[in-house]
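Dear colleague,

Following up on Tuesday's group meeting, I ran the structure prediction for the two-component complex that the binding team flagged. I've pasted the input sequences exactly as they went in, so you can double-check that nothing got truncated or mislabelled along the way. The structure tokens for the whole assembly follow below. Feel free to forward this to whoever is handling the docking comparison.

Inputs:
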Amino acid sequence: MQAEAVVSALVESEYQRAYERHSADVFRFTLAWTNDWTSAEDLTQETYLRLWRHRDSLDWSRPILAWLLVTARHLANNRSRGLRRRLVPTRSELPSDESVRDRWLDVRQALRRLTPIERAALILTTLEGWSYAEVAEALDTTEGALRAAVSRARDKLEVA
Amino acid sequence: MSRTSQILNDWHAVARAAALPKDPPKPGRSVGSVGLAGVALAVIFLGVVTLRGPNPAPPGTAGGVAPAPSVPTTVLTSPNPAQGAASFALPGAGGTCSASQFVLGKATSGYGYGPIGTSVVFVSQPLRNAGDSCILELPKTIGVASVTGSAVAVEAADSGSLSLHIGRGQSISLLLMARWPAGGSVENRTPSPCEGPVSDVTTVIVPFASGTIKLDLSPTWDQVCRSPASVSLTIVS
């Protein structure tokens, strides 16, 4: 009984902490991957719902961010495939702040020429300060492929 | 500035302006609600408070029993001297750890789930051992201070390991759970015994072998009983 109570409380606490620590990371990752504000918000929520459902089977002593990012990427890919199959137009919400919204529309347009892996690779390694190894794990690729993607992304943006 | 840098700077500014919900999603319930899972957790929690069986030997200790040749007593003044000059004696915990060798991280807290008429709140306080390795024992008595500033010693139920070896640089979490009656009266419900209740608790004081750490609560706890224990204390490594 004692162990169950401790585990329950710990899991609840760790879940809350995982959200406080990493929800912004997950959002930015999904934003980089999808280049879509609404999808990033939805995917962040879906990722944490998935975390909640798997809370009892996870090893909380290990860093949880990698799990979150891999899950977010899977969900993003599933979402993309599902939308393509159904040919349903996505709702497109934008940041509520007007100045942020205008800036985002410009950035989104510029980044559209990149593939998801190029966007994520460039943004996460350059802006978020993650190592190539960390990003490669999250994107299920190799460090070499990641460096190539970053290089391609830079080339594409410079000629835009 | 290159075109790439400009775009990345803009992306950075925009992405960090995102306003995510404050609380994480939990399907089928919301914080503060009472559901079946909540009742189950509360039953478990009540079990923790009232059914104190033998604790398992934690890793890194020989049989889970650390030497405790003496129990020093720390005399504390009220955390809020302006509102009361009361002092109280708080027995030190066993083991060898000093409060001063731990670096406190940012505490997190949240609501647990209890049966109708019961509130359950937990606080997780990360601690990093910045000193030498030591044996940490959970105290049987902790201090609580109310909004009026008076501090008193109350019983604590140690729901986890009795003692734990904490290595140099090791991080652990101190997990506290408190419960109190809430939500008005429920017919035919016998109120739980609560000796010397302390209301509106804003601060918890946890003694170590030497020294104490003080935790400021947010949200505050409506009530803590001096006896029987209504606060559960454990260490998660």
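Residues 36-50 of chain B form the longest helix (15 residues).

Cheers,
M.
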